[in-house]
Design goal:
Blueprint lengths: L1 H11 L1 H19 L12 E5 L8 H12 L5 E5 L10 E2 L6 H4 L1 H9 L4 E4 L3 H11 L5 E5 L11 E7 L27 E5 L7 H11 L6 E14 L12 E6 L5 H10 L2 E6 L8 H12 L6 E6 H7 L3 H6 L4 E10 L4 H13 L6 E5 L6 E5 L2
Helix pairs in contact: 5-10
Length: 375
């Protein structure tokens, strides 16, 4: 009965989805026909986004790009700063916290202190201001800006969840698409995220056929890679296969992390909050109470790195309760040995705009100077 009711309610939203779809279609056509203008910058701009509501793993993919490119270029990230308490243009510094810029940008700044992290509602005006204040920036990573067509990114990377391919979805509110499936044609790279690490070649080929990429598009497949736990407070506890875990999350989809912990720990209890939730003192008391009710001496609390950015606003209270709080770091693995191909596509795009500097070598006899371009 409940499923029937949900189906009926879903189909009642169909007229609204049609109206919304027509509006988005007209808007996109106005950009395609140059009735609405997009600004393209001489600085390389890489956009990482999606056309689906909900988490597709943008943060670890942005971090993948940061780690790939930061040894070669001066990077900046530009995000809207979702659910931050501030407004307007803001550059992160040593005193910035998650309330100022949002949890994901704060996570980037915490992990990569030399990275320029910027937030602003209007990307079109934020990029000139960023470049004016940080002259050394060479490459800008746009976080979650696929729909923000006022800026024409030089490279668009579209993420789609393995479990929720955009090709199988419908436009809001009938489905979860922010715009029609045809919008994927704007992407240069399409990345199917959160794949099983043992995804078969046959399944890969079926998905490629389903997505049906254009001649200008490449498709890659990535899986989540769970790295080490690290403590957020001085209250350290042992972590092993006999450990019982209270997993506290405020993210869109904690299910993959739950399954991972179930495979490595004795028991996993969950306490879930809404996505991007800013934790309160009452929440800490609820967490502390739930933790106390776990009947084991070998127990810890685990959260995600994104949630940790918001939990650290209440660090003193967490320490006061002597809670053994850990963050689970994650990364991505490019499947089928195609990581080097992906890296080269991204680097080649940048090098077409910023030519590589020559390496000057002096021969052992100091008789001649040789110039060799970086490959």
């Amino acid at each position: 009965m409940k499923q029937i009711l949900l189906t009926v309610l879903k189909y009642l939203t169909l007229p609204f989805a049609i109206i919304y779809g027509v509006i988005v279609f007209i808007r996109n056509k106005f950009y395609d026909w140059n009735i609405f203008s997009s600004i393209e910058f001489s600085t390389p701009v890489i956009c990482v986004g999606n056309i689906t509501v909900g988490g597709t793993g943008k943060s670890p993919h942005i971090e993948y790009l940061i780690e790939l490119l930061s040894p070669m270029y001066a990077l900046a990230t530009l995000s809207r700063g979702y659910k931050r308490y501030s407004s307007g243009f803001k550059l992160a510094d040593a005193n910035t916290n998650a309330r100022d810029i949002g949890d994901e940008p704060f996570q980037f700044k915490s992990k990569y202190p030399n990275l320029e992290v910027c937030v602003a509602e209007e990307r079109m005006t934020a990029i000139p201001e960023l470049l004016q204040k940080r002259h050394h920036v060479q490459v800008i990573l746009l976080d979650d800006a696929f729909q923000h067509r006022t800026v024409k990114a030089g490279m668009n990377i579209l993420l789609t969840d393995f479990e929720r391919l955009y090709t199988r979805d419908y436009i809001m509110p009938f489905g979860l698409l922010r715009e029609s499936r045809a919008a994927a044609q704007r992407a240069n790279l399409i990345v199917v995220t959160k794949c099983p690490s043992d995804l078969s070649v046959e399944a890969k080929q079926k998905m490629i056929a389903e997505i049906n990429p254009g001649d200008h598009q490449s498709i890659y497949f990535t899986s989540i890679e769970y790295n080490n736990l690290y403590p957020l407070t001085p209250n350290i506890a042992s972590v092993n296969q006999d450990t019982e875990v209270l997993l506290v999350t405020g993210i869109a989809n904690p299910k993959p992390l739950v399954e991972k912990l179930k495979s490595t720990c004795k028991k996993v209890y969950t306490l879930e909050f809404k996505d991007h939730h800013y934790f309160t003192y009452d929440d800490i008391e609820e967490i502390q109470s739930a933790f106390q009710h776990i009947d084991s001496k070998n127990k810890i609390i685990i959260t995600t790195e994104k949630d940790a950015a918001r939990f650290m606003l209440l660090k003193e209270k967490i320490i006061e309760y002597a809670l053994p709080f850990y963050a689970q770091s994650i990364g991505i693995e490019v499947l089928f040995g195609e990581g080097e191909n992906l890296n080269q596509e991204i680097i080649s795009f940048i090098q077409n705009i910023i030519p590589p500097l020559p390496i000057i070598e002096i021969d052992p006899n100091h008789e001649e100077v040789l110039e060799q371009e970086i490959e």
